[in-house]
Amino acid sequence: MKHFFLLAFSVFTIFSCRNNAVEEIIAAPPAPTAGAATTLLAYSDSAQIFTTDLTGGNRRLAVAPETNTVNEYVGNVQFNATATKFIYQHTKSGIPTISTIKSCNIDGTNKTVLKTFNVATTSCTFLKVLASGKILFGTTTFGGAGTATNIYVMNEDGTGETTFTQPGFSVSNARNTSVSKSGLDILLISASTPQPGTNYSGRMISYLGWNTAGVLTGERVIENSTDVFNDASKAGNITISNDGSLVAFAVNIGNGKFDIYTKSTAAGAAARKLIYTITVPADIPLYSTNSLKLRWLNGTDKLLAYLGKFTSPNGAAADYTQCYLITIGATSSTDVNWKFVGDDIYDITPNF
């Protein structure tokens, strides 16, 4: 997990779980209102969860570390359906390593374990809270029979877990899974393993739900383009809107630039639409397109794109995450750009 140093918006300070660096936080914003447009963004840093507004301001510590050690991590942060709780993955490495899905109030109180994983054989690959309040999550299981990727759903309190299956193709990286708020529209990367001397082969596909046997049905190929999925480094950066009507994805076009596209999920939809081109800051290395992430905000009105600089292995004070808030329209434009100084943030998520 990468470390994060906040800018000086100081009202009070806490200590980070890594290297004892000082985190500077401002007072908490008002609680969000269920059903409103996006008002808060949340993200994890090491064992902490922070919130901010849509300009990168009003930053506050929402969830503090549980043990204040370098061996504790938080990720896959989600708001619940009413934006009154966080649902997130919590990992504490050691003997034994413990990995769980937890929930807590947005002020960090009432931490509750919802699901515990056997880390020797299973990893949690994604979380999605649905409009119904149920929690969708994916796992990859390793064993003598090979690798299996599965999708599950459970209630917000961790009860009623049900197993779903995926169709018979391999998924290049289950973290690329994106799900609408209904849980019926699912976006995946379907990919074949490249043979020596051949190109990576993949497709971006969506589904319209599950049949009675628990198998995903209604497959639609959204993109099968060689400029997006012709190698493993470009099989990422996909997101589906909460209503399932649009997908967005990024294409590395070289020379330090990404093209951001949207496309309808409807059958027979028009070609993808270029909405914005990001010129990456010169000091951010482009190891792969997976360094850029996308999130829908305000339905399909806005798109958040972000990528960061990280100095391996433990980060550096000059590292940062660059954010672009893009308004989708006839002529798309960025409303605001901002930086989180000190880290490459992975899992920024909106409250609505």
Intertermini distance: 26 Å
Task: List how many beta strands DSSP finds.
Answer: 28
**Residue runs with pLDDT of under 50 for 5 or more positions:** 1-35, 167-175, 192-202
Radius of gyration (CA) equals 20 Å
The geometry reads as globular
Proportion in helices = under 10%
Report the sheet-strand fraction. over 45%
Descriptive report:
The protein has 352 residues and is mostly beta strands. It has one helix and 28 strands. It has one helix at 226-229, and strands at residues 12-15, 22-25, 41-45, 48-52, 60-63, 72-79, 85-92, 98-105, 112-117, 122-129, 135-143, 146-154, 162-164, 178-179, 186-192, 201-207, 209-210, 216-217, 220-223, 238-240, 246-254, 257-264, 273-279, 292-297, 302-309, 320-327, 333-341, 349-350. Strands 5-4-3-28 form a four-stranded antiparallel sheet, with no helix packed on it. It has a four-stranded antiparallel sheet with strand order 6-7-8-9, with no helix packed on it. A hairpin with a 7-residue loop joins strand 12 (146-154) and strand 13. It is globular, with a radius of gyration of 20 Å. Mean pLDDT is 74; it is low at 1-35, 167-175 and 192-202.
Features:
4-stranded antiparallel sheet, disordered N terminus, 1 helix, 28 strands, mainly beta, 352 residues, 47% strand, globular
Q: What is the secondary structure topology, with strand pairs?
A:
Blueprint: E1 12-15, E2 22-25, E3 41-45, E4 48-52, E5 60-63, E6 72-79, E7 85-92, E8 98-105, E9 112-117, E10 122-129, E11 135-143, E12 146-154, E13 162-164, E14 178-179, E15 186-192, E16 201-207, E17 209-210, E18 216-217, E19 220-223, H1 226-229, E20 238-240, E21 246-254, E22 257-264, E23 273-279, E24 292-297, E25 302-309, E26 320-327, E27 333-341, E28 349-350
Antiparallel strand pairs: 1-2, 3-4, 3-28, 4-5, 6-7, 7-8, 8-9, 10-11, 11-12, 12-13, 14-15, 15-16, 16-19, 17-18, 20-21, 21-22, 22-23, 24-25, 25-26, 26-27
